[in-house]
Request: fold
Amino acid sequence: MAHMAGYSLPSFINSLLTNLFRNIFSSPGTCREEHTSDEYKDCICTHSDSGSDKSDEGTCDVLPCPDNENVSDRSSGGQGSPHTYSDKHVSDRNIIGQVSPCTDSSKHTSATGCGVQVSPRTRRDELGCQMVLDFATDFCKNHSAAVDLRKPAAQLSDRQATALHAHGKASDLSKGFGAFQFGEKCHISDETTTNPFRMDLDASSSYDEESVATQESESDTDNDNDSDDRLQDSPTMATEGYFRHGQYFLGRQEYVGSLERCGVVRTRFPPEPNGPLHIGHAKALHVNFSVAETYKGECILRFDDTNPITARKHHCMNAIEMINWLGYKPSNITFTSDYFEILFNFALTMIYKGKAYVCHLEYVNIPFDKKVSVESPWRTRPVEENIREFYRMFGGSYVEGQAVLKMKVKTRSGIKDPVAYRIISQPHYRTKMHWLVYPTYDFSHPIVDSLEAISVSLCTTEFVSHRALYEWVQKTLDLPKVSQREQKKLVVPFTIMSKRYLVGLLGRGFTDFDDPRLVTLAGLRRRGIPPQAICKFVALGFHEYSQLLDITREILYPVSPHRLVVLDPLICHVMNYDDLASAAREYPLTVRIPEFDTFSQTSSRVVGIARHIYINKFDFSKNEKDKKHCLTPFSEVHLRGTDYVMQVTHLHHSQDKLIGLDVYLRKVLMKDRRMKVLTWVCNPAKIKVHLIDSRFQDQGSQPAPILSATALAEHSLVSTLKISAEFTYGQTYQAERFAFLTLDPASTLNEYIFNITCLLNLHSQLQASLLKVFHQN
Reply:
C-alpha cells in the first residue's frame, strides 16, 4: 500500500490524519471517575488509565447506573472535570458517523496506528470512550472503491484494501475478508459510507422511541478474526444490538458469541407462572421469536418458577396453550426450578469469593424506612461463618424472614445489597418440600440465561436499573456474558395488564381469567380476537384497544361467513305471499345469498322466505323525512340479498305500541341504489348476544357489566355450530349490518351465546340504534 493510484505516501497520510482528527475529540482526558464521598470510594473504574478494572475484594462493588441522568456538570470543561470536549465537535455532529463504545483506551488506535483517547459525551457512554470510524465526505469521495468482501486479501488492490481498512472494516488484511461476507459488495464512496456490520447507521445512533437499549459497561473487543462460515449467511448487523420498529437486531458480538457457545442464535421467553398471559406478553413473544426467526435460530420457553407461593402448574399449562394458539413453537420448555441445585452451588461460590453474606437485618425490629439506609452489621462477617449460616438457612434452622443471603454490591441506580436467597416454607409445585430456600429473580436470571447460552436478554424498561447487577452476577461467577437490552412495556389504556390486580379482582369482577372484557390472551380469544390480529397489533407497535379492533375487522372481513341477524325484531306479514309463490313456481320461496361479499355457487347458501318476515324496529319510522334511512309508510326498501322490494300497507298497534306491519313484496329486475337495504330473517333461531366493554376506569375498579340482548338469526347460523365437547374457538360470523359475532364456550344446545367481537364500520345513527337496544334490555 506504499504506492496508491494518484497519491504519494506522505500526501495520503496527511489527508488521512487531517480527516480523522476532524471527527475525533482531540482532548485525551483521563477517563477516571472521581468520587469524593466515602460511599463510592471503592468503585470499579472500568476505564482507568491502565485499561483494567480495580476493585476491593473485601468491599462491595459500585456499578454504573444506566439511567440517562444530567451530566452537564461533568461536561463543562472546567478545571476539575475529567471529561472535556470543544465546541468544534459539538457543531460538527452532522459529520460524525459510527460511534462504538469501548472500555480499553489502549485499543483506541486509528487506521494509521495513532493512539486516541476520547472522553464520553453523555451519561449513557460514560463507561465507554467514543471512537469515530466514519471519515469526512471529501476523503470518501477521493477514495471511492467497491470491495467484494468474499475476495481474499491477495486479490484486492492496494486502493481497495486501504479504503476498506481506513473505513474500519478489517483488522488483519492478511487473513482476508471471507469471515465477514455479509453482502455482495461494500461500496465506499461519498454516497455510501455505511458499515457492513450495521443494518442501519441511524438506527444504532438514535434509538426507536419505544425502545431503550442503553449501552453501558464493558464492551469486549470485536472478534474480527472469527472464521465461522455461518457468518457469511447472517444479516448485516451493527457492532451493538438495537431495537427498530418493535424488532431487535443483534450486534455482531452477540451474534458471534451465540455461534461460539451453542452454534445457533437463541432467545427465551421467561414468564412467571403466577397468573395469566396478557397482550403485553404477546409483545415479548413477538420480539423474542422474531429474533430467532430473523437469524434462523431458536426460542425457548422458560418458566421462572422461583416463588413457590404464587407459582402454579395450571398457569404453566395455560401459558403453553396460549403460546401455541398464537402460532409460536418454542424449541424447548425449561423451568428455573430445574437449576435449583446449580444455583445453590453458585450461591456458595459467591460466598467463597466474599461477594455475598447472610443477613438478619430484615428480622430486626427497625422501622422500614431506616432499614434502607442502615448498613447491615453482618456485612463484614467472615466467609466461613457465612457458609455455615447459609447451610443453616437451607436446613431449616431459621424461619421465613429471619435470614436472607445478600449480594455484596451496590449500584448508582440505588440497588444496594439485593437479596439472592430467601426462606420460603411452602411446597413448590414441582420440587415439593425439597427446598426451603429459593433464589430471587436478580440472582437466578443472569445465571440461567448464561447457562442456556441465550444470545441476548430482552426485557422491559423497568429492568434498566438492574442491568448493571445482571452483568455483575455473570462477571463475579465467571459466566459467559449475556447482554441485556430493554424496550418499552406495552400499555393499553383503560385496561388491566397487571397480574397482581387481575388476581385481586378474580372472584369479584369476574370468575375466570378468560373473561372477554380482559386483555388476557384467554379473554381475547374468548371474545373472538384472532391470533393474527394480536401478533400484527404488537408487531406494528400499536397500543390502543381501538387499533386492535381495527386490525380484527381487517382480518375477519374476508374470512367470516355472512349471516342475517335481527337484533330488535319487528314482525312483517306478507299479504301477497301466495301470489309470489305461484309466480315463482316454488313453495316456500327461496333465494340464494352469497356466503361472502363475492357471489359464487360454491360460496353461497339458500335462504327461505316465509309469510312472516322479521326486521329491526329501528329500521322502521313513521316519519316521512326518514325515508332515506328507514322503511316508512311512504317509501320502499330492498330486502338484503334478494330481488324483492317491501312496501308497508298497514300498521298494527297494541296499547299505542307498534307490534307489526302488513307488507307487500314485489320482484324487481334491477336494484335502485338510492333505495334503503334492510336486514331480515325468516323462520329464525333465538340467540343471546353479549356486548363487551373492555374499559376499566382504574386498576382497582370493577369491570363494566356485560350487556345482553336476545336476537333472531337465520337457522343456518346455529345448524353448523360446534358446541359442548366439540367446541372450538374461533367460530366467528359476520352479522350483516351489525357486527362480528363469536360463539362463546358457555353455549349449550338450549342457549346459543355469542360475543360481539367488534362492530362493523357503521354510520353513527345505525351504531347508536344498535347500542340503544342493549341498554334498554
